[in-house]
């Protein structure tokens, strides 16, 4: 596999060099890309995305192979005649799939740190993804949510009662004080917000043939389907939720760091992104959880931009599976971030650890053989409860907004 990876890495670098050559040629001639060049550029962008998708598949396949090797190694090391005792969770899940149980709760063993569940190379986080059903579901949930990929702070609670969370709205300030003078009081300003536990659910129906086919990885099938469905629903609210009977999204609670120029239909320039970068103060910029978030189409526009020294702001990752960078910070994509448009908040930048995601309890699974009896389908229901809120509202997260006209 190493040779394949090396070829993909070389191909990715070559595609990026071709894209740069197109942009540099147009810039050198002081013109925009022609229609033909724009078509070629978009194709090259598509090639980059396709290579990234293939790498992701290879990483997942390699991890599955490692898991299988570990399982065989454990079997081979077992004394002759010894029977492996299934984990209680596995036993419950298998009994549940056979219809012996109608409802199970899948909970993490201890607090789960979502930052470890990064879909990337093994050394960048792939090895930390557990192979339990809960871990697989969470991995798929993160896979489709840019916010969960961007290193938020995740709170796992056993139950779903409301949590009162202090929100910082202003910091203390200091001043020079003369000898014997009174030191002026300067308290930080706080507000109180509530983290709830909004319920997200999905119904999954499987045929009896699927359930009785011994070649089917039922655990993987259920975790993939449920994780992606729940991730899509929760992920949308973690970006743009208005806090009314749903989470408050990162865009909703972020302040505006830079407003674009007029007459460009919300488009940003290199200077706009640099201004947005420095609108976030150094303690947040230097955080390991600091990064960018935008949708895929916006990424295509960002890849064209250069700074005052003619250097591209966007840089491809030298390590497969690791996010590309913009001004040295990782870029995460989420389709729920607005497209570039007049008045649209199309780019988010800052310290995503200031955004709290609350996960109440584990994942509840229930089964019904009667719901779709006439179709010979078994219905599974997956439910999670979650909420989200930016707890540091002093400027940890900021957005670029297109001008109103």
From TrEMBL:
Residues 16-43 form a coiled coil. It comes from the Bacteria. Residues 125-394 form the Phage capsid-like C-terminal domain. It is found in: Virion. Its main location: virion. The keyword Coiled coil applies. Keywords: Coiled coil. This is Phage major capsid protein, HK97 family.
């Amino acid at each position: 596999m190493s040779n394949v990876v090396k070829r993909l890495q070389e191909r990715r670098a070559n595609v990026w060099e071709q894209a740069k050559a197109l942009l540099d040629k147009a810039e050198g001639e002081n013109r925009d890309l022609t229609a033909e060049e724009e078509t070629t550029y978009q194709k090259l962008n598509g090639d980059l995305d396709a290579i990234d998708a293939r790498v992701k598949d290879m990483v997942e396949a390699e991890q599955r192979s490692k898991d299988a090797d570990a399982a065989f190694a454990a079997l081979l090391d077992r004394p002759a005649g010894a029977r492996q005792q299934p984990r209680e969770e596995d036993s419950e899940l298998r009994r549940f799939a056979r219809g012996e149980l109608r409802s199970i709760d899948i909970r993490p063993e201890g607090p789960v740190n979502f930052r470890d569940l990064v879909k990337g190379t093994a050394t960048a986080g792939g090895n930390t993804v557990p192979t339990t059903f809960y871990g697989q579901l969470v991995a798929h949930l993160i896979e489709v949510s840019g916010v969960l990929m961007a290193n938020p702070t995740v709170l796992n609670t056993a139950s779903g009662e409301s949590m009162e969370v202090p929100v910082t709205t202003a910091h203390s300030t200091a001043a020079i004080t003369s000898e014997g003078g009174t030191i002026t009081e300067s308290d930080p300003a706080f507000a109180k917000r509530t983290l709830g536990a909004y319920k997200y659910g999905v119904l999954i129906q499987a045929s009896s043939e699927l359930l009785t086919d011994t070649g089917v990885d039922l655990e993987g099938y259920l975790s993939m389907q449920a994780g992606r469905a729940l991730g899509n629903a929760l992920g949308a609210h973690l970006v743009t939720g208005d806090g009314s009977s749903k989470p408050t999204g990162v865009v909703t609670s972020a302040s505006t760091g830079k407003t674009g120029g007029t007459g460009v239909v919300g488009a940003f320039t290199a200077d706009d992104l640099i201004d947005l970068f420095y609108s976030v103060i150094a303690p947040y910029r230097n955080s390991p959880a600091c990064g960018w978030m935008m949708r895929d189409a916006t990424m295509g526009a960002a890849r064209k931009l250069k700074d005052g020294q003619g250097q591209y702001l966007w840089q491809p990752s030298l390590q497969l599976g690791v996010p590309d960078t913009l001004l040295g910070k990782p870029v995460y994509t989420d389709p729920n971030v607005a497209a570039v448009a007049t008045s649209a908040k199309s780019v988010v930048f800052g310290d995503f650890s200031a955004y709290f995601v609350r996960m109440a309890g584990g994942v509840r699974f229930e089964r019904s053989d009667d719901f779709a009896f006439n179709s010979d389908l078994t219905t599974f229901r997956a439910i999670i409860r979650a909420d989200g809120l930016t707890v540091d509202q002093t400027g940890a997260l900021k957005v670029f907004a297109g001008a109103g006209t």
